[in-house]
TrEMBL record:
Protein name in UniProt: Plastocyanin-like domain-containing protein
Membrane-crossing segments per the record: none
Domain Plastocyanin-like: from-to ranges: 4-88
Signal peptide residue numbers: none
Length: 89
């Protein structure tokens, strides 16, 4: 749980692939600040991860150094610290 979760450390120029599995009964609109990412043929900065076992994979190039929040856009989930940070220089 954010801010106690480990940061997701990557290096500038990395090709980053994130796979998510939602085992909860809630839908999670997951948002990555500072980057656009590829989901299939679409370019997005937020992707919906449906409930009950939905799987989503997205990819991006680490080309914007900094500390970037990755979080659920449902405010009550963010308030419960459903977030991580992608960090690189």
């Amino acid at each position: 749980m954010y801010p106690d979760a480990d940061t997701l450390e990557i290096s500038e120029g990395d090709h980053v692939r994130v796979r998510m599995v939602n085992r909860s009964p809630a839908i999670h609109p997951m948002d990555l600040h500072g980057h656009f990412f590829q989901v299939g043929d679409a370019v997005k900065d937020t992707v919906l991860v449906a409930s009950h076992g939905d799987r989503v994979t997205f990819e991006f190039r680490a080309d914007n150094p900094g500390d970037w929040l990755f979080h659920c856009h449902n405010v009550y989930h963010l308030e419960r610290r459903m977030a991580r940070v992608f960090e690189y220089d």
